[in-house]
Amino acid sequence: xxxxxxxxxxxxxxxxxxxxxxxxxxxxxxxxxxxxxxxxxxxxxxxxxxxxxxxxxxxxxxxxxxxxxxxxxxxxxxxxxxxxxxxxxxxxxxxxxxxxxxxxxxxxxxxxxxxxxxxxxxxxxxxxxxxxxxxxxxxxxxxxxxxxxxxxxxxxxxxxxxxxxxxxxxxxxxxxxxxxxxxxxxxxxxxxxxxxxxxxxxxxxxxxxxxxxxxxxxxxxxxxxxxxxxxxxxxxxxxxxxx
Length: 243
Known about the structure:
Blueprint: H1 2-21, E1 46-49, E2 57-62, E3 70-78, E4 87-92, E5 105-112, E6 125-128, E7 133-135, E8 146-151, E9 160-164, E10 171-184, H2 210-242
Antiparallel strand pairs: 1-4, 2-3, 3-10, 4-9, 5-8, 5-10, 6-7, 6-9
């Protein structure tokens, strides 16, 4: 165990430095390994440590997303002091057809919930196995999605990736959204979506009514006629002036 921690202290430092300098990969809608647009593959995720004590839950929700129809909402219900401050949720490499995450780059996007600014002190993207490596999102906020990345060194037989429990302080409610968790192999190829992508659902809030479309069309026609008529008057005045 001591050897594992010593190795982790050196290798994790290199991985985190690499992560900080890594430009986020441009992932299109539906290209992420886990899109979290529905609950089709939520059973792939397991919890450990103090997940039960902190009331950690993660649920696919619609309406809030970086891409697609939804994202993963992470919540907690901490009402007292937590003795063992470790844990989180993870997937194992075999869930996506890999033996391990050797040389892989792991990325995901996070968005903070309103009022949860002080409840993400322990949140990170991590990998565990032969060594422990983690990366924390920098500048996470409630208005824009923040990317966090983690690079697994070569010859690292780590079989788990996931996220840690956001906080162990007393807190009850929603904390953050996670979207587009992407696993990219060392050769640059992305592990294809596992089957939880769903295109964004258009609602009455983000569509324009038929009546509004008709009104806008009429207004556009009137503007065009007015512009054409104005040009005609100007041309006519010029012609009369030089006639």
